[in-house]
Every structure is written in C-alpha cells, then in structure tokens.
Amino acid sequence: MYVGIDLGGINIAIGLVDDDYNIIAKGSVPTGREREFSEIMADAAALINRLLDESGKTAADIKCIGMGSPGVPDVENRTIIAASSFPKIHHSSAQDELHKYFPGVPVFVENDANAAAYGEKLAGAAKGIDNVVVVTLGTGVGGGVIIDKKIYAGFNHGGSEIGHMVLNFNGPQCPCGRKGCFEVYASATALIRQTKDMIASYPDSIIHEMIDHDPDKINGKTAFDAAKLGDRAGEKTVAKFIEYLGIGVLNIINVLQPEAIVIGGGICKEGKYLLDRLNEFITPYFYTDQIPFAKLMTATLGNDAGIIGAAMLWQQQEA
Amino acid sequence: MYVGIDLGGINIAIGLVDDDYNIIAKGSVPTGREREFSEIMADAAALINRLLDESGKTAADIKCIGMGSPGVPDVENRTIIAASSFPKIHHSSAQDELHKYFPGVPVFVENDANAAAYGEKLAGAAKGIDNVVVVTLGTGVGGGVIIDKKIYAGFNHGGSEIGHMVLNFNGPQCPCGRKGCFEVYASATALIRQTKDMIASYPDSIIHEMIDHDPDKINGKTAFDAAKLGDRAGEKTVAKFIEYLGIGVLNIINVLQPEAIVIGGGICKEGKYLLDRLNEFITPYFYTDQIPFAKLMTATLGNDAGIIGAAMLWQQQEA
Fold it and tell me: Mutating which of A91, A173, A182, A254 best tests the B interface, going by the most B Cβ atoms within 10 A?
C-alpha cells in the first residue's frame, strides 16, 4: 500500500493507494501554506495516521510515500527547492520531515502537475498511452508531460511550464513576467474574465439572470451552460475560448507530437461538447494527412490524479 | 565506415564518416527535387560510389547508410512518407532504392532537422549533452529535439516542428496555415525582411551603401554588420530580431527545459555577439534563481551536422 500526498495551496489531500491504483482511503486537511514546512508535514503525517486507523492498517503496511508539491522538486534529494506560494519552503526535505513519523519509509517528491499527469497516465484517461501531455485548466494552466511512460521535466526538473508558453507576445501581462502566456487565455480564471467581458456587450444575455446579475457568480461553467441554451454571448465566449485553447494545444502538438492530450480541470466536465469543438478547431491545422495526430481527451480522475500519481512515484524514481 | 546523406531541396550532400564522427570524404550533387525518388536516389548512389573511389574504399566498407530528408519519415520501414517540397515522394522507400546499389547494407531514415540536431549532439556544440534542442534559422526555423541522448520526434515521428509554434496569434500569415509562427519572426528570411523594412525609415543608414542601394543584396548578416558599426537601423533590427528569437527560445525552455539550446543556420556565425544579447534578453524571464536553466550555444558543424547525424542514425534505430 502506497501513500500519495497532493500538497495544495489550500488543502493537503492524501490517499492510501493499492497496487491497482485504487484509493482505499482518502482525506484532506487545510495546508496553512504560510507555516513552517515542518508544521505542514506534521499535519500530513497526522492525516496519514488517521487514514491508516480508518482502514485498519498500520505504518508497517506503507511501502512508500510520494508527494506532489507546487514548485520545483529536487527529486534525487527528496526535497522541495522552492514553491512561490509557500514562503517557508526553501530546499525543504520532505524525506527528513516524513521520516520523523515514518522512519525508513522511502519518500519521493515531484511537481504536483507532473504527479497528476502521471496519475492520469496510470489510471485515468491516458491509461496505456505512453506519450501524453496533460493540460490542466484551473487558476492557471498547468502541464505535465509523459514521454515513453516517464514524467519528463527537463534536465533541471523545472518543466514543464506549458502555461507559460507565450501565444501572443503583444498580449496582456502574465504574473510570470512575460506577456500573452497560454494561461492568460485558457485558464478557468481567463474564461471567467472572458465571460464577464462578453456579457457587458450583451445586456439581453441569459447569463445575467443565471448569475443573479452578480458577476462574482460567474464560474468556468457559466458560458458553456449558456451556450448550450443557444445564448449568443455564451456561444461567442465558448468559441473564442476554444480558439485560445486550440492555439495552445496546436503548439504542444507541433513541439511534442504526443499521442494524446488530456484536458483537465473543472472544464473537462464539458466532455464531448468541449472535445468536438476543440477538434474542429485544430484539425485543419495538421500539416499532413499522412500521419496520425494527437487524440484529445478529458481527464477522468479529477483531484484523485494527483494522489494516485504521487503514490506511484516509486515507479519513476529509484529508492 | 558510415554513409550520411543530407537530402536537401537544392543539393544532396553526402559524406563518409568514421567511428570518431570525422567526415573522411564528402561531396554534393544537385537534387532535382521534382524528379522521381528513384532517380534522386540513383544520383545519391553514384555520389557514394565516387566518394568510395576517391577515398580508396569499396562498398564492402560501408557499415550502413543513413539519410536525413525533409518531411516525415517512417523510421521503421526506412521510408519517406511525404515531403512537401518533393512532389514525387509518397511513402517512398529509401531502403529499396539504396539496396539496388548497395544490397544488404542497413538503411536508416530520419527527418533532416532531427538528423542535424543529432550531429550537433554527437560531434558539435552539444557534444556530451544529453538533453538539447537545436533551432536552425534558415529559410524557415527548423528544430531538432534530443531527449536522453535520443532523437525525440513524437509518437507519429511528426516532430518537432518548433518553427510552427505560434508566438503571436494575431501575427502575419505563415505558409503552414497558422498565424505568427516562430519562423515568421526568427528565420533568416524574417531577418532579411525586417532589415528591409527598417532601413526604409532610416535613409541615412549605412546599410543602403553596404548593399549598393539594392534591397536584394540584404542577407542575414547585413543588420548585424551594420549594428557592429554603430548604425542605428542595424542596431534596432538586431535588437528586435533577438527579442523575437528570445521569445521562442523562452517558450522552448518553459516547455522542454533542455540543458542546452543550440542556434544553427548562417546566423550562428555571429557567435558571442548573438549569444550575449540573447542571454541578456531571456535571463530576466527565468522563473526562479534556484535552479539552472538552458545554456545557449551556437552550432559548430554547419552543414556537416546533417551528414554526421544521418551517418550515425544506426545508433538510434535498430537495424
């Protein structure tokens, strides 16, 4: 039995995972990301112990612990080098902290988006596919690249920052310092902003009613819901968003030619509606009809992907 | 001794290469790219025989033949599936054609940009570096990706088309169908156009004299030569070109985090002058100072890279 930790800015989600990638117990606790790393890991350890109790297991049943974390991991030293949203993380050893509670248990670390991509590859949409890019549309756009069954993160383990691929160098400022990054256009945050901007020009849009005339009630589903009801503002917002997403997806295809691209994040619930339109946009740009191009898919594991991928990091890294 | 064929739109360049990646004989003949593939390969075979004669070798000394070709190869079947500039190439078997002249000799095929990248990795700028992207600035922008010592071309062998990564989706039309591709901004062709456009606003620029007032004499060196002499139009052209190139390079870094990026094509002769300015542009955009980022280099093998890489394809593929 393996422990997967998905360290998020808001919550620490943890699951006990069996050899068949089933989560046999899971739970979460608030992260308190401003705290010392040792305190955060103490809470994680307490949650692991609670999950062990609940499922009638003991620490002796843990084969290893894997953790997906924001920022840049030092995979070899089982350390998080830096994570911008965690002020106290600085070359912080996950192994040292977790060994306080589970001495001798092998510990692995990985970037959270990479761990989630690995989860989708092992047990989700991309099961059985060896070359896949997972693009997660959330607050930003996260990316995880699997090449030849392995997480690909570059020579410095600093990749893959697909969300910070510039699609329009004259575009709006991105917090990363560059302009017109993929995530400025195709994150859930961007979709919400695009919906707000669009309805300002459509006073008759049904969206105004759907959100009780409160723009703060717009979420990543709003424009899709309205579009499906034939609302013009919704349709135009969705069409433009899919164009933006498609431009980024085509860049990924041209650079990486993965066998599949998995779209994750809340928006993946749009399923076939999203994929049909996205395929319609990208297909005319394939540069030959003599070879196959990437299949588009939506993620199937949701937040469990990060837990399962983290739990199974031992398959990627030597103990 | 290995034979490397670099099949170009204008010339077929061929070299005999030894185990230490030295070219012991080389030559070229016009391609005649409109002809039947069998005729093109017959000329290649004749050139191979001439090179063998010149160097006192025989066909029995050939361990294998590798060919880099435009378009998309079927590596497994040693076939070129399609190449847009070669109208008669359509699932054309390099192996069958070359076996007419060199029966039984193992034949390997690869995309030409990938073969050239492999050459730079084996024997050029990126010798000893296992993760490298070679970006060649010519008529277009070609790319070759080496991951973990191996040519990476995606699941369909259709990659990597780095030149067709969109940097500005509102930009000028690219022949590929998309808008604002990397090669629209950073190819040698683009630099020549940018130089022409710039000097139109600078009637006093020394460039007008340098080119005898004939815009057709502008080449990829012109703006650099003028900039080094302190010419304002030259300086502005170079600065803008480096910005464009830098945006593409940063995208490659964010997606692939290679250990090195090698800039190839005629422009790489600008060496340190180019690299210093390119580094100055990209470094502020690295998202952390806690990990190393890609080293920039200029290619060292010139056109020999394609020959050496092709000759050594046997190291990549099973016979």
Answer: A254
Amino acid found at A214: D
- Average pLDDT of chain B to the nearest whole number: 96
Report the share of chain A in percent with pLDDT over 90.
96
- Mean local confidence (pLDDT), A4-25: 97
The two domains B2-111+304-315 and B125-298 share their CATH topology (first three levels equal): yes
A141: helix, strand or coil: strand
> Quick one: CATH architecture of A2-118+304-315?
2-Layer Sandwich (3.30)
**Chain B contact present for A154, CB below 8 A:** yes
B:272-301 residues touching chain A, CB 8 A cutoff? 284-285, 287-288, 290-294
What number of C-beta contacts closer than 8 Å exist between A and B? 158
- Buried b vs exposed e over A157-169: b needs ≥16 C-beta within 10 Å? bbbbbbbbbbbbb
Domain positions in chain B: 2-111+304-315, 125-298
- What is the predicted pLDDT for the residue at B284? 96
The shortest CB-CB distance from B247 to any of A162, A169, A291 is to A169
Q: Which CATH superfamily is domain A127-298 in?
A: ATPase, nucleotide binding domain (3.30.420.40)
Please state the separation of Cα A214 from the chain's center in Å. 28
The domain made up of B2-111+304-315 has a fold known as Nucleotidyltransferase; domain 5 (3.30.420)
Task: Give residue-wise pLDDT tens across range B139-195.
Answer: 999 999 999 999 999 999 998 999 999 999 999 999 999 999 999 999 999 999 999
Complex ipTM above 0.85? yes
Peptide bond into B160 cis (omega under 30): yes
CA pair distance B30, B223, nearest whole angstrom: 31
Best of B72, B79, B89, B156 to substitute, by most chain A Cβ atoms within 10 angstroms, is B156
Q: Which of B285, B287, B289 to mutate to test the interface with A (most CBs of A within 10 A)?
A: B287
* pLDDT greater than 60 at residue A319: no
First-to-last alpha carbon distance for chain A, in angstroms, is 16
C-alpha closest to that of A182 among A260, A243, A238, A131: A243
User: What's the fold here for domain B125-298?
Assistant: Nucleotidyltransferase; domain 5 (3.30.420)
Predicted structure pTM score: 0.95
Contact between chains at B178 and A250 (C-beta distance less than 8 A): yes
